[in-house]
Design brief:
The protein has 148 residues and is of the alpha/beta class. A 5-stranded parallel sheet has the order 3-2-1-4-5. It is built from 6 helices and 5 strands, in the order E-H-H-E-H-H-E-H-H-E-E. It has a single domain, classed as Rossmann fold. Helix 1 packs across helix 2, helix 1 crosses helix 3 and helix 5 crosses helix 6.
Length: 148
C-alpha cells in the first residue's frame, strides 16, 4: 500500500512536477515512495493527471545539461504512460488558476497545477512543496510528510 493513498476512496490524483522528476531521475530519498505510485498507475489501480506545464518544467534541466536522452524519456513518458492524462492549459484552467492565485497568494505554476487538478475532478494533489496552503476542494499531500 502507498502510505499517502491509504484510506483514499477515490483513486484519481493530480501529480506535481517533482513527482515525475523523483521517479525518472531515481531520487534515492523519494524513489521508495514514488515508484509504487507509478506501478499502481501502470496497473490501472489509479489514474493521474498533470498539466502540460509539467512537461516544460521537467525538461528544463535535461535541455540545460544537453541530456537529450533524458529529455526523450520524459517526452515518451508524458505521451505514453498508462492511466496518466496530461491536460493542456485551457481558458477554464487559466481562469481558475488566476482565481486560486488571487485567493491563496500562490505562484502561477502552482495555481495552474492546482486548477488542473480541481477541474479534472482529482481528489488529491501530490506535491513536495511545503509552501502550498490547504486548498478548498482538494487534498494537498506533501511527499516529505510520508518519509519514514
Amino acid at each position: 500500500m502507498i502510505p499517502f493513498l491509504k484510506g483514499l476512496r477515490h483513486k484519481k490524483i493530480a501529480l506535481d512536477t517533482m513527482i515525475f522528476i523523483y521517479a525518472f531521475e531515481e531520487h534515492r530519498v523519494y524513489l521508495p515512495l514514488v515508484h509504487p505510485l507509478f506501478r499502481e498507475l501502470e496497473k490501472g489501480k489509479l489514474t493521474a493527471v498533470t498539466s502540460t506545464l509539467t512537461i516544460a518544467e521537467c525538461m528544463v534541466q535535461p535541455f540545460r545539461a544537453k541530456a537529450l536522452e533524458l529529455a526523450a524519456r520524459y517526452k515518451i513518458l508524458f505521451r505514453d504512460f498508462p492511466h496518466l492524462s496530461v491536460i493542456p492549459v485551457s481558458d477554464e484552467i487559466a481562469e481558475k488558476g488566476a482565481w486560486l492565485r488571487a485567493q491563496y497568494k500562490i505562484k502561477t505554476p502552482d495555481a495552474i497545477q492546482l486548477a488542473t487538478a480541481l477541474i479534472t475532478g482529482s481528489h488529491v494533489f501530490l506535491t513536495n512543496d511545503e509552501a502550498l496552503p490547504s486548498i478548498e476542494g482538494i487534498r494537498v499531500l506533501i511527499l516529505d510528510r510520508f518519509l519514514k
